[in-house]
Protein 1
Amino acid sequence: MPGCAARTSTMLVSVFGRDQPEITGSLFRQLAAFDATVVDVEKMRTRDYITLCAHITTPKADGYAEGRLRAAVHDWAVSRELHAEVTPSHGMDDEPSYERQRSHVAVVGHPLSARTTAMISAKITGLGGTIERISPLARRPVTAVDFLVSGVDTKLLRAGLSAMAGEVGADLAISEAGLSRRARRLVMMDVDSTLIQDEVIDLFAQHIGCGQQVAAITDAAMRGELDFQESLRARVALLAGLDASVVDKVRAQVRLTPGALTLVRTLQRLGYRVGVVSGGFMQVTSYLAQHLNLDYNAANTLEIQGGRITGRLVGDIVDRAAKARLLTQYARESGVPLAQTVAIGDGANDLDMLNTAGLGVAFNAKPIVRAAAPATLSVPFLDSLLYLLGIPRAEAEVAQSHEVLVAH
């Protein structure tokens, strides 16, 4: 009819099978013969197998033309020992996926079981969400995947999945899709039992023979059972009289957490600012900050007079409230909104900081901290934080290849 727009045919072409050289170009040459226009395309590779989907339109909407296209794609697939489907896709333009509310659900398992994956998928569906894509982030030493979910508000999704976090046997982080996910540009870390494997005050105490006594107080403080300031002053008092040369010995004992250097180097390579805020001591954190080239460093300072530790602290104590204040201060100095900050720690004195950050992560934390933190990591590899940020292992490979313990 004169003046009417020409009808078009809209189809979804799906190809499955073992990946082959130049498979994408070869498929689209087949489609080009029918003057196809690409509306959307996606290719995913899992080991040696691929899923390649193309949402296309063709200028002819008659059944004969569609049949010829189906036959051509079928013959092409058979010649390459692939499976192909061509199906009508009416209505696919009504609500493009990139215009819907979308969220990322990062899942880290060690291992990631089928039961866990089933539970997460069922919860997403039960909340009204649609899983658009599942992408791999890492296969070793942990398994990490990313669910792209549409159709459900991110806050509702976070609340629903967080409520079942203790049941699924995996760590979860839920964030809005879009550029803001990668825009988190300041990462602040606790030091003891987070960046490093040790509790520094316990190492000092071992040199004066009261290691067990101090360790018991430290553990109770990290569980939130003791006031942090009071417990810290009591523990530091037990160090009175130690020769200042012990500082160098403690530095030599400190062990980075597995994956710590990879995490720091990868974040720095991607343009993040990275710092530490610690209830420990500047005498050790300054050493770490120098070797890791950190942007920020805050901790308590042991008083040393006449070549000996006095058993007192100098200046204000870095406690639970101070950690949150320092995160806010460093974000302001960096020009980074708090919504684009990340904090990670393990103890009760980290909770204010974790809940102030855009993403707060409890790392192998005490139960009270795991229950109150927005996200958790329960694997022994600190670089798993990258996966919660949506950064795949491939982007960390260069940094990881250079990972060594801090030189002593």
Protein 2
Amino acid sequence: MRPLRACLGAAAAVTLAAAGTTALVASNASGATTALGNRWYAAAPYLMPLDNDPPDPAAIMDATGLKAFQLAFVLAPNGGGCSPTWGGTAPVSSDTAVQSMINTIRGKGGDVSVSIGGYGGTKLGQACADPASTAAAYQQVITKYGLHAIDFDLEEPEYENTAAIHNEIGAAKILQQNNPGLYVSVTTAGTADGTGWFGKQMLLEAKSQGFTPNNFSIMPFDGGFNGAASQTSALTNFNAILQSTFGWDQATAYAHEGFSGMNGRSDSGEYFTQADFQTVLDYATSHNMDRFTFWSLNRDRQCSPPDNGGRTSGTCSSVAQNDWDFAKYSVKFAGVTPPTTTPTPTPTPTPTTCKTAWSSSAVYTAGDEVSYNKHNWKAKWWTQNEVPGASEWGPWQDEGAC
């Protein structure tokens, strides 16, 4: 995300206690448990919880039906070190403000994902020594907040740093392995071509490490875009890049593809209206895309005057709107069941013996069969290190108990 997304308010620095990598803790500080369907985590709009005049998430939920929020951003400390902070200044270990917001959201039946990175600031992939230590820092965030979803926002200037991207992708793979069912998105810059050279290098790094997230999302704004037509064209081009990089067919690539837009006036003076969002939403649902989100809820309200004097703001959209107009498109996406484009296959009879056990390191292609958790599973497309049954939109078809 762009410069308006990079600044968080200052907070007193507190030394972060080290924490090892542990399994996913699906509870908040009050002991309540929550988990939404992957469609909601894929639709969660970004919200800065500590700056840019944070809106009340409860009010947004009441007004729109929104259930999921993408909280941004976790960075390395401004003074150096491999420990997670909000915006480089507020240590996650001592946080109570963000935790309180999460408790409010969960208390109303919702949940959150946390985004790491963004535009500007020092990323943990830059500050930590290797993928393992980077993952250990992010695991502290997952464990503290009981996360079921996490977003890697990899863009300038970090994605120009080969070592940092190696650490980030490696960390994402470790977190995926150590937290079964964790929804992982990777967000990067969008261009008319789909994504630029550094974005393509990031995809190649993921391929080389055998890492497949739930989706790769592009941000088609701040790059010479002009309304929805230019954005859907970029999404089509990005689909081709995913196909050529991972050897997927078109449908598989769309099933791993996401859109992350910017509502209203972008940093570079582009404009994206409610009508543009509807057009992109129609494209995303008709192509069975995996994610539809935007930056940001802090901006999802009208400026005064509505055009904000032709300036871009971090707290309003600079276009005419009602409060939370753009959040309603996320709700539509989360509630939409993608249309069925192929006939439902004939169910396979329940097997009596188990196939060869699934392996996280093996590569599987369409039709390959494995056993996992006393069920047999058949691969629907190329996959590696995607746990059978972890996601309803995943690559594995359940063939029944064995």
